[in-house]
């Protein structure tokens, strides 16, 4: 029997995307626009969280939101109710955005008058973590009902994130969720993670996140 031919691939299949993402970040720096990539599972409370953050920041910095979904414009319509600029990005069945797709959205959106653009990525803890979108910071929301073991099951998501937002702490008493364990697991994956605990529903903890983001945006845009 002939031996199987093995080809060793030394260059990442994501190399082109990584270069495009780096270039996009450079362009955004020149334009003084901060891009935040917000990721999570479906139902984690991304949109509710985002509405609470917008309420706290929109009087101080100009904000725009790009809502990425496989279909529907439900989230974009919800964000527009806050009074900020919002568009919907349909991914055509794809479960993530890459740098090229993000660039298309930004060009269509227009960012010259925006300090902060939030990319609400497709709800998924796997695919979005694999592609650099060109964002300045990556944030992931993990909600209490999902369980504290997610950093162990989906390590890449927590490795690429700069910010971990633990949401729905108002229901901690009703779930077998260990707050200290999830923090330890997440920091094991990424010791540099900035961790916040919040309830988007009651708005507990949102002031701290908003203050942090405002400082990051102002540092990037000055």
TrEMBL record:
Alphabetical keyword list: GTP-binding, Hydrolase, Metal-binding, Nickel, Nucleotide-binding, Zinc
Domain CobW/HypB/UreG nucleotide-binding intervals: 38-196
InterPro entries documented for this protein: CobW/HypB/UreG_nucleotide-bd, Hyd_mat_HypB, P-loop_NTPase
GO biological process: protein maturation
GTP-binding listed as a keyword: yes
GO molecular function (one): GTPase activity
Gene3D superfamilies cross-referenced by the UniProt entry: P-loop containing nucleotide triphosphate hydrolases (3.40.50.300)
Signal peptide bounds: none
Key word Nucleotide-binding present: yes
Family listed: Belongs to the SIMIBI class G3E GTPase family. HypB/HupM subfamily.
Protein name, per record: Hydrogenase nickel incorporation protein HypB
Organism (species): Bullifex porci
């Amino acid at each position: 029997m002939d031996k199987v031919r093995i080809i060793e691939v030394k260059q990442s299949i994501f190399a082109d995307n990584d270069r495009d993402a780096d270039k996009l970040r450079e362009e955004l720096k020149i334009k003084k626009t901060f891009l935040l990539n917000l990721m999570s599972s479906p139902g984690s409370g991304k949109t509710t969280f985002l509405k609470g953050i917008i309420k706290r920041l929109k009087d101080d910095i100009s904000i725009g939101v790009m809502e990425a979904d496989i279909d529907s414009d439900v989230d974009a319509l919800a964000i527009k109710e806050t009074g900020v600029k919002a568009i919907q990005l349909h991914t055509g069945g794809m479960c993530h955005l890459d740098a090229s797709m993000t660039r298309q959205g930004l060009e269509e959106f227009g960012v010259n008058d925006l300090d902060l653009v939030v990319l609400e990525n497709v709800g998924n803890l796997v695919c979005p973590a694999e592609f650099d979108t060109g964002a300045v910071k990556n944030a992931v929301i993990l909600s209490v009902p999902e369980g504290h073991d997610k950093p162990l099951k989906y390590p890449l998501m927590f490795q690429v994130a700069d910010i971990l937002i633990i949401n729905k702490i108002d229901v901690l008493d009703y779930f077998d969720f260990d707050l200290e364990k999830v923090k330890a697991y997440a920091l094991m994956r990424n010791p540099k993670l900035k961790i916040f605990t919040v309830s988007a529903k009651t708005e507990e903890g949102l002031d701290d996140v908003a203050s942090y983001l405002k400082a990051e945006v102002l540092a990037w845009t000055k």
